[in-house]
């Protein structure tokens, strides 16, 4: 089976042009792109992503500016490539759940990944988003219990985001038995791909992830590559490498 | 009021568990263990023992005669400033360290702003021989050096946090990140009635001894019930504990937020007066955020009130009208600190000075009334700021 993989980028980082260019390049390989809308208090993010998000906020980029960048990306990608927004709950709550969903639909976003809305708090959001045809992505973790995995697997739309270990983005990957079991368990009970994220940063860890899951998500490493030079060349080289290997 | 929070961890509309999926089962375990802990007579006896012989409870209610005469108001002070380590924070720390032991965990982490909760946590960690790490914004590390040294002396590791505004909220973020990674053997000893359920419940329960004690002291020592109860509100733990003791009475309760320099955004911490509901650090509660949904920068002369959100139970009390929320500015608080020091020989913490300052500046409203104020902490830690800011 073909793998189902995603990249994560912080919206308009390091600037609008380089972000759009990186987004388009990454979608030559990746099936979906998570676009991070910066929040002042990114509790689930490690220093690399948190710093990038902070820089974007400090540079004065507004929510509406990000939507314009998304429009440009959307207009230039094939229809089978999906865009997700990754952000924190206050962005949604503040704008109103219904209204936020409408904005996402207006800009061609497939769904949302919100690390501070766990399954048990998701109903008030999903009740509305599902009516709007949006996918609300659920997480499974090394802590998830079989009955929780079952519930999540059966409710899942889009894909299931499995967190490779206890920790925040940018930690090193260490696939222990507990998450391998959780992923295997979820795969037998769901119709959507189960994708591994957190700690995946090179061809080697991608391969490791694919031994267990249906796909991988690379985040922190993508931001680090953008930090390496001023013209996305390291970033582009990495995407080419992935294209050749997978 | 006694029925809250509900089974999902909500106080009316507010509260919940807005955290990473990884923490959900840890919070469930904490909730279950806490329910058992609460019923455990041996634990209750140990906590009572520590409150009495280690912390110095009960703290007295003092009738502030000189100020009362001056303003023609009967002013009573619940003296939490006399508690070991100098503030109400220790009530919660003693409770939670026993809970940590009860859960079989060996390591604790905490956040601190001014350093009071950090010192109280370091104190109980030393007492119970536990490994302790305290996260503190690097700005706070610099301006609260004496408390950093206290924590170090007590054997705690203090980690300066360089993210964001490098103050209290960033220290909470860092502590939560540590907890996500180490939740199996680590307890997060949170310092206020904030964060995901069950923390607002646990901290309020450990602080309600303030209100329960004060209520019986008013009756036993003075033969009265107060007309008003006033407490300062940052995250809101001293106020939550104090108010809970009077929740089912007719006593009018007033929570005082930090009015700061002005009511312009960024100049104050008037979360309940000027904020609106939002989701931040694990809870749905009133929040000061910008038009762009970013958490706002806030200011108070008092580091303990310098927080952009507030405990969810306070949000519910505001909406239900059970508690009235008002504010006191930096200047009024500094003046009140000076006045209480000179008239009663009690140097209050700048946090607690907000409650006093509100009373003085609204004295007409309280004329001939009986007012009980929670004096949540002592002001030694604030001397540097007091001498810098106040005209003495």
How do the SSEs of chain A run, as a string of H and E? EHEHHEHHEHEEHEHEHEHH
CATH topology of chain A: TIM Barrel
Q: Order of strands side by side in the largest beta sheet of chain A?
A: 5-4-3-2-1-9-8-7-6
Q: Give start-end ranges of low-pLDDT stretches of chain B.
A: none
Number of domains of chain A: 1
What is the architecture of the largest domain in chain B at the second tier of CATH?
3-Layer(aba) Sandwich
From the spread of the alpha carbons, the general shape of chain B counts as: globular
Report the average pLDDT across residues of chain A.
Answer: 95
Description:
The complex is a heterodimer of chains A (246) and B (392). The mean pLDDT of chain A is 95. A 9-stranded parallel β-sheet of chain A has the order 5-4-3-2-1-9-8-7-6. Chain A has one domain: Alpha-Beta Barrel (TIM Barrel), CATH 3.20.20. Helix content of chain A is 48%, strand content 14%. Chain A is α/β, with parallel strands linked by helices. Chain A is built from 11 helices and 9 strands. In chain A, α1 packs parallel to α11. By secondary structure, chain B is an alpha/beta fold. Chain B folds into 2 domains: 157 residues, Rossmann fold (3-Layer(aba) Sandwich); 215 residues, Rossmann fold (3-Layer(aba) Sandwich). Chain B contains 17 helices and 14 strands. In chain B, the strands form 3 sheets. Chain B has a 6-stranded mixed β-sheet with strand order 3-4-14-9-10-13, sandwiched between helices. A 4-stranded antiparallel β-sheet of chain B has the order 1-2-12-11. A 4-stranded parallel β-sheet of chain B has the order 7-6-5-8, sandwiched between helices. In chain B, β11 and β12 form a beta hairpin. In chain B, α2 runs antiparallel to α4, α4 crosses α9 and α10 packs across α11. The longest helix of chain B is centred in the N-terminal third of the chain and has 19 residues. The N and C termini of chain B lie far apart (44 Å). At the A-B interface, α2, α4 and β6 of A face β2, α1, α8, β11 and β12 of B.
